[in-house]
Amino acid sequence: MNRPGKRGLNAETVSSVETGVVEYMTESASSLRRKKPLKVDPDFKNKILDSPGGETLRYCFQCGTCTATCPVIRAAGDTYMVRKLLKMAKLGLKEELLNSEVLWYCAVCHSCEERCPQGVKVAEVLGALRNLAAEEGNLPKGLKALASNIVKFGLSMEMSEDQEMWREVMGLPPLSKPNLKHVRRIVEETGLAKIVAEGEADEP
Ligand code: SF4
Ligand code: SF4
Q1: Which of 89, 107, 129, 162 has CA 20 to 30 A from 49's CA?
Q2: Is residue 78 part of a domain?
Q3: Is 65 inside any structural domain?
């Protein structure tokens, strides 16, 4: 099991902690204005800790260094605060978290993990959360389309005759055909086929 890091506080970390505290205070003020109570699943945290990749969530002490480090925040603004996602996970806000679009914003760059003083494998924890969201059928539309192509063709997109021809014109070798029998077995055993089938049945 991964152990928390033993890195000491330096000026950079202190500044990140300050950013986290400001974020926490702003967020607390806005939650006071919330009228409807949120639904809490007390067992959700344990489910994440038991999921592959989710184990290090237990070490997060909410310093905010990950939020201060994350490059995605520069594009997404304060809609994407990774520390907040981890806090929601620990609080058991399952429904709110697994239905959240921002859960899919992480670019898996691992920058936050380089600086996390607790050794939390943030991208892996978010991966565990995404898997749980996918199990509940909550996949973003674009990813659903890619997953559907993988189930049907063994590739993330169907190769047309034109594309094959352009590969040849550009001097690229022909694309090797995936073994659909093997692909079928993988998508069945991982549950991907079921997720895709349920998603297609839900479509209007
Ligand atoms: S994951 Fe690490 S850096 Fe982020 S809030 Fe938790 S302890 Fe701090
Ligand atoms: S791994 Fe994800 S959450 Fe962490 S810094 Fe990169 S994009 Fe942000």
Answers
A1: 107
A2: yes
A3: yes
